[in-house]
Each structure stands twice: as structure tokens, then as C-alpha cells.
Amino acid sequence: MTDAQMLSAPIVVSAGAATDVGLRRRINEDSMLAQHPVFLVADGMGGHEAGEVASAAALAAFQPLVGLPSARVEDVVGVIDLARHSVDALAGGPSGGAGTTLTGVVVSQHGGDGYWLVVNLGDSRTYRLAGGALEQISVDHSVVQELVDAGELTPEEAATAADRNVITRALGAGSDEDADFWMLPAAQGDRMLICSDGLSGEVDAATIREILSTLPDPQAAAERLVLQALANGGRDNVTAVVVDALAVVQHDPMDTLPRASDRDAGRGSDDELDADTVPRKTPRSRPERGDRR
Question: Which of the four pLDDT bands, split at 50, 70 and 90, describes residue 30?
Fold first, then answer.
């Protein structure tokens, strides 16, 4: 990113990223992209090397946005369509095979002000730390989250439910569901965390908040989060991207723009992940995570 592009960016950021295969996996099927204005994590599924290829293919579609001062919602929607085609092509069509989750933030703007554009498909997560409070922005696309939303499971029951590894949306793996989007007004000092469920399934929210609150360097924070997930069991691949807002263009701090998603916000259950995340098979052939080898 050039100096001129940096000066024109609605949010000036500093970022750090870390990933690890974990203690039980042979292949790291997580992929990450942390280059302005795009900060994403994709958690592949499909077993063998299919998930690794799927997550990498999904993020490769975002490369044309790298280096821009910001990106619009329609830009990201178009890239996600391309990413879906790329992942579907790995299986020879949209009927099954490889798939991946996708979540993260893209630097965007509205009325010239800096906004976080949050995108999500699956059960990887995007959080925001602001004013010392940690908030999960993304909503898990999972069977147990649907049961929690319906009042059929408590969050505590969901953490040990038999279907806790089954997701209901993804890129590829037979899913054709749309992504959720949120537009959030940014503020100087915001810290965004994008992570695979190998982190959220091993490290509770209180510990995540403590690490993000006490390590000012985003690279150090990302590495510490990954190490904590490994210390807590490391049962899955684990990836963390931490993005700090150093400066934000903000003409009217009282202005807010509602998220584009029509889903109610809610915190999903943590996936414990002795088994990999599996897209659910439905009449629309939604995605499942199979065991990784």
C-alpha cells in the first residue's frame, strides 16, 4: 500500500496474524489473509488436502482488493461469488466435496467515514474489542446455534451437543447460502479479532478479552492467542488475525449504519472439535465438515 493510499484510507490499521496446525491434525486447512483492506480467515473442510485447497482458493479470490484504500459491499459480494465458483470447481461442481468457512473484516466507508465491513459464512468468528468489552459480531452458522436461537438448547448444552461440529453455511461443500454482512462504524482504538473455531473452541471469551486487552502489539496478541489454544488442547487447526484501528475518518461519530444482514445477532456455541466441522446435509445440500486426515 502506497503512502498516498494510506492517507486516503478511511481506517489506518496495524495487523498481526498467526496460525498453527494444532496438536492433533496433520494438515493445516486454515488459511488467512491480512493485507489492507482485507483481513480474513477461512477454515477448510473435506478431509485429506481438500480443505486446505478450498480455504486457499477462497482467499485467493480476494487478492484483487489488496492494496486498495477500502472496498465496497458490492465489491465483496462479487468476490465471494467468484470464491464460491472457485471452491465448487474443486469438486467438479456444486454438489459436494471441498468447502470452507469464511469470516473477517474489510476496511470500508460510508459517507466518507471509516466502517468495518464484517462478512461471515460458517462458524469461524469475528469479534470486536472496544472500550474494554469483547463482542462477537458474527453469528455462527451451525446446527447448535439454530437450536440455541430456538430455545431448544442452552449455550452450556450446546457446548457438548452431538451436532456441535455441524455447520449450515459455507463456501462449497454443496452450500449455496448467502453470507451475512454487517457495516459497523469504526473508532480509533477498535481491535478486531478474526479466528477459526480452533481458537474459539479452546479459549473462552474472558481469556480472549484478557489477551487482547493486555498485549498492545497485534502480532504478539495473535501469537499469544494461538499459543493459548494449543495449551488448552489444540484439537484443531488454530488461526488468529488481530487488526487495530490506529486512525479513523469520522465526520459524525453519532452516525450508525445498520448491518445488511436480516439475521438477529447472537453468540454461537463453541465448537470443541475432536471431529472436524461438518456442513449439514439438507435437501439444498448444505455443507458438512468431515474428519481431516
Answer: very high
User: What's the CATH number of domain 3-255+265-272, 3.90.930.12, 3.60.40.10, 3.20.20.150, 3.30.70.120?
Assistant: 3.60.40.10
Cell (9 digits) for 9: 484510507
Taking a C-beta distance cutoff of 8 angstroms, is the pair 16, 248 a contact? no
How many angstroms separate the CA atoms of 213 and 221, rounded? Answer: 9
What residue type is assigned to position 231 of the chain? A
- Which of 265, 46, 41, 282 is CA-nearest to residue 143? 282
In this structure, the dihedral spanned by the alpha carbons of residues 292, 276, 24 and 83, taken in order and rounded to 10 degrees, is 60
**Between vectors from CA 276 to CA 15 and to CA 210, what angle results, nearest 5°?**
40
What are the pLDDT digits (tens) for 3-19? 555 558 999 999 999 99
Please classify residue 173 by burial: count the beta carbons closer than 10 Å to its beta carbon, then call 0-12 exposed, 13-18 middle and 19+ buried: buried
* pLDDT tens digit sequence for 92-144: 655 457 899 999 999 999 999 999 999 999 999 999 999 999 999 999 988 88
pTM for the full predicted model = 0.85
How is the chain split into domains, by residue range?
3-255+265-272
